[in-house]
Design brief:
Layout lengths: L3 E4 L6 H10 L4 E4 L14 H14 L2 E5 L14 H17 L4 E4 L9 H18 L6 E5 L12 H11 L5 E6 H6 L7 H14 L5 E6 L1 E2 L10 E2 L8 H8 L9 E3 L8 H12 L8
Parallel strand pairs: 1-2, 1-10, 2-3, 3-4, 4-5, 5-6, 6-7, 7-10
Antiparallel strand pairs: 8-9
Helix pairs in contact: 1-2, 4-5
The chain binds manganese (II) ion (2 copies) and zinc ion.
């Protein structure tokens, strides 16, 4: 069974995300464990946690988290530094309480201190947070970014440097976003470029550090450094990248979720998932 699905809303409770995912045939979902546009979220009651765990066990849904959008651990220039630390601490607490295997984090923006300074800052801050949460199982997955503005994490070298600096292999990993990687300048659109990109990824980061995928087509061109998600097959990437990914044996056990634009009844998710499934040979063809 492939772990395939989409980001799901937790409106009405975290367990509702599992129900929503299941209603459209997802086997994997990504959630926010708290409001993604606020620093701090409500603590989860033990009843909520139990309900979530029961439903997860009975459905077999693979669930992982994405951290809130306000968090920036790559700069201490703003007064938001302490808020970012507190917010990330809570992300880890809530994800751990729900028993989630990992939470995806944007490496952050250096806001003028430069890439080197930003990487050092991120390493320092994540080391602190990992020490503070010693004994936790939840991993922090650094997401490959498009490199918009002063965003870090748009080069494999940078992600590798971060992982090496944090030096906590059991608590860290990488999430690969197709839209971001293409916008960052890696040409995964052609077979040749796709193979070359993964060779480089393996050499610099290591395929064993890869734990999840965000499947998004891109509204912008190769190297645009702009983060604009598009429906699968409707963007500048087109279907070929997704055909290569869906049929790549190296990734067949990794969770892959959509972060494409959504409508309330999730019809667009269904359509995107159907397109992805159609790219794999059906059992009858094998
Ligand atoms: Mn993200
Ligand atoms: Mn993403
Ligand atoms: Zn994005």
């Amino acid at each position: 069974m492939r772990l395939l699905g989409a980001h799901m809303s937790t409106a009405g409770g975290v367990d509702k995300a599992i129900e929503r995912g299941q209603s459209i045939g997802c086997t994997a979902i990504q959630i926010f464990v708290k409001n993604n546009n606020q620093w701090m979220g409500k603590p989860l009651t033990s009843e909520t946690i139990n309900q979530f765990k029961l439903l997860q066990a009975s459905t077999g849904m693979f669930v992982f988290a994405h951290t809130g959008y306000l968090i920036n651990l790559a700069s201490e220039k703003t007064d938001n530094h302490e808020k970012s630390m507190q917010s990330m601490r809570q992300e880890l607490e809530l994800a751990e309480a729900l028993g989630l295997p990992f939470t995806v984090l944007h490496p952050g923006s250096h806001l003028g201190i430069g890439e080197k300074g930003g990487v050092e800052m991120l390493v320092k801050n994540l080391k602190t947070l990992i020490e503070e949460t010693a004994g936790y199982k939840v991993k922090i997955l650094l997401e490959m970014t498009a490199g918009q503005g002063t965003n870090l994490g748009h080069k494999f070298e940078q992600l590798a440097e971060m992982l090496a600096g944090i030096d906590a292999p059991e608590r860290t990993g990488v999430c690969f976003d197709t839209c971001h990687t293409y916008a960052a300048g890696y040409n995964i659109k052609t077979k040749e470029g796709y193979e070359k990109t993964w060779e480089e990824f393996d050499k610099l980061i290591g395929l064993n550090k890869l734990f999840a995928f965000h499947l998004n087509d891109s509204k912008t061109e190769l190297g645009s450094r702009k983060d604009r998600h598009e429906h699968i097959g409707k963007g500048t990437l087109g279907l070929e990248t997704f055909r290569l990914l869906m049929n790549d044996k190296r990734f067949e056990n990794l969770p892959m979720v959509l972060e494409t634009p959504k409508d309330p009844d999730m019809k667009q998710d269904v359509e995107n998932l159907n397109i992805l499934k159609s790219l794999m040979p059906s059992p009858a063809d094998v």
